[in-house]
Every structure is written in structure tokens, then in C-alpha cells.
Write a structure and sequence with these properties.
68% of the residues lie in helices and 0% in strands. It has helices at 2-19, 27-30, 33-48, 55-58, 65-82, 94-97, 105-121, 126-143. It is globular.
Amino acid sequence: MKHLFITALVLTMLTSCAQQAPKQPSLFERLGGTEGITAIVDEAVALHQTNPTIKAVFLPYNDEPERLAAIKQHTVDFFSAGGGGPITYLGRDMPTAHKGMNISAAEYMAVIDDILIVLDKHNIDEQSKKDVLAILWSLKGMIMGQ
């Protein structure tokens, strides 16, 4: 009887473990970690600089390479930390970072479109693209019109 009880207990535990959904990798991991996110940011900024809707905002940073590098690093850190990575974002909050830029809805959508193009280029899965889009959409009110 004792062996039957132990066998039933072990089977219950194994069944319970088998029924738990496997842990999904973090968005940070799904985007390729620091290396993947850095490549995505670099390519997105390059697209922004050729996008007729927003290039006027991004092209002047070519004359300030150190500032451009800092902005890119803050962006990498922001998405890394927000995506569950082992990074702490130490940059400014979104309203402060975008103050005086008066970003329009069309400009904001152009940024999102460029990012989605880069995510497609990197073969990022649909759920991860939706997760990135949700983050970008949640920031809209903190960035537009500042």
C-alpha cells in the first residue's frame, strides 16, 4: 500500500511538472540580447536618416557622432531593460528626452514603421514584433507633442 501511495505521489508530481508551460524567453532574449538590440537600433537609426518624414530630425546627429552614439546606447539600454535584460536604463524619462522636439503623429508612425522593417529584416517572430509595438505604442503619449 505504501508503494502504491508513493507511486501515485510521484506520478502526480510528474504530471504536474509536465503540464506547466515552458518558460518563454524574455523579449530581450528574443531580440538577440544586447548584440541583437544594438544591431536593430543601428539599422533603425540608419533608416530614420533616409526616411523623408523624419530624416530632418536624425541627419543633424551625423555632425555629432558622440551624441548619436549616446542616444543609440540609451535606446539599446531602454529596450534591453524593458525587455527583461540584465541592463539598467539610466537615461532620461521619455517626456524629458523628447522635450522641444514636437514630434507629430506622422513622425512617430514613421519611426515605428522603420523599426518594424528592421525587425522583419532580422527575422524577429510575430509575437516579439507585437511586444515591441506594444512598448512603442505605450510611449506615444510621453513622446509626441513634447
